[in-house]
Amino acid sequence: MKIGSLLGALSVPFTQNSFVERPENITITATKTIYDFKMKSLDGKEVDLSIYKGKKVIILNTASKCGFTKQYADWETYYEANKDKVVVLGFPSNEFGGQEPGTDGEIAAFCKKNYGVNFPMFSKVVVKGEGKCDLYKFLTTKSLNGWNDKEPSWNFCKYVINEKGELTHFFASGVKPDSKEFMDAIK
């Protein structure tokens, strides 16, 4: 392991409860919303994200072999209790410590068997750096989303999207559905 990646991994627990909120006093100049994207589900079907219009959306970058993997259960419970007005979308990625090495089929089986995940899960994507998928380019590029440039710092970071498809918050890995800052954001 490289020294830089080791230091990055060691710092993870110290930075994973942070969040960034869209400033209220700025005029959003986003050029897109999440409704402009189509993504491939774990079972290979194209999903037009515009089907989530009118709901809040929580976007998670997930991994099956991470210390935060147990959050699948937290987010599944949250989704089941709130799916009439909030949808949770999982996007597996392998950028952080190689903690999602599986195929889409293996990821789907793992999530269902170990955590009973019913919220929509998507094909593995790149969420940071070179090769970043278009959805995560939108989430992490200020000129596209109107205010945020924060990339995921580890697995299970969260992006909150309002009912209009606009990005409103970013939460680091340690923030769970029952965290005060998350509950305040989702109101």
From TrEMBL:
Single biological process term from Gene Ontology: response to oxidative stress
**Xref: InterPro entries:** Glutathione_peroxidase (IPR000889), GPX_AS (IPR029759), Thioredoxin-like_sf (IPR036249), Thioredoxin_domain (IPR013766)
The chain positions of domain Thioredoxin read: 28-187
Keywords for the protein's UniProt record, in alphabetical order:
Oxidoreductase, Peroxidase
Instruction: Please name the GO terms that the record assigns under molecular function.
Output: peroxidase activity
Active site: residue positions: C66
Task: Kindly give the PROSITE patterns that the UniProt entry links to this protein.
Answer: GLUTATHIONE_PEROXID_1, GLUTATHIONE_PEROXID_3, THIOREDOXIN_2
UniProt key word Aminoacyl-tRNA synthetase? no
Q: Cross-referenced SUPFAM superfamilies, in alphabetical order?
A: Thioredoxin-like (SSF52833)
- Oxidoreductase among keywords: yes
Q: Which CDD domains match?
A: GSH_Peroxidase
Q: Which family does it belong to?
A: Belongs to the glutathione peroxidase family.
Q: What is this protein called?
A: Glutathione peroxidase
Which organism does this sequence originate in? Arcicella aurantiaca
